[in-house]
Automatic annotation (TrEMBL):
UniProt-recorded name of the protein: Presequence translocase associated motor 16
Topology within the bilayer: Peripheral membrane protein
Superkingdom: Eukaryota
Compartments it resides in: Mitochondrion inner membrane
Lineage per the UniProt record: Eukaryota, Metazoa, Chordata, Craniata, Vertebrata
Keyword Lyase: no
InterPro entries: J_dom_sf, Tim16
Statement: the UniProt record of this protein carries the keyword Transport: yes
Family that this chain belongs to: Belongs to the TIM16/PAM16 family.
Sorted UniProt keywords: Membrane, Mitochondrion, Mitochondrion inner membrane, Protein transport, Translocation, Transport
GO cellular component, one term: PAM complex, Tim23 associated import motor
One protein family per Pfam: Pam16
């Protein structure tokens, strides 16, 4: 009886292991396909997100902007930076998050300036 139970456990572990490996390969292939579909600007943006540790969406949420308009970003940045100043009773941590969010959005604006043709293609899709 113990022999059969051990065989069932071994077979079950093998089945789960194969299923996990197959799912991992599929996920890797899907992420590769998505990266290729985003194109060069998408790769640069993903690299910037990886380097800064902050996505564009997160930076937009921190600065409370819905679009990448430099004037709106600068206005919200200045306001949030002043409000979170340590001398005014603010938080240095929040102030640094505001600075990093502005840096991330500035990087994204630079990436978009580098490849305006691709930006138009992304807007059409």
């Amino acid at each position: 009886m113990a022999k059969y139970l051990a065989q069932i456990v071994v077979v079950g572990v093998q089945v789960v292991g194969r299923a996990f490996a197959r799912a991992l390969r599929q996920e890797f292939a899907a992420s590769q396909a998505a990266a290729e579909a985003r194109g060069r600007a998408g790769k640069q943006s993903a690299a910037a997100s990886s380097f800064t540790g902050m996505t564009v969406q997160e930076a937009q949420q921190i600065l409370n902007v819905s679009t990448l308009k430099p004037e709106e970003i600068q206005t919200n940045y200045e306001h949030l930076f002043k409000v979170n100043d340590k001398a005014a009773g603010g938080s240095f941590y929040l102030q640094s998050k505001v600075v990093r969010a502005k840096e991330r959005l500035d990087e994204e604006l630079q990436i978009q300036k580098q490849d305006p043709l691709e930006q138009k293609q992304q807007q059409q899709t």
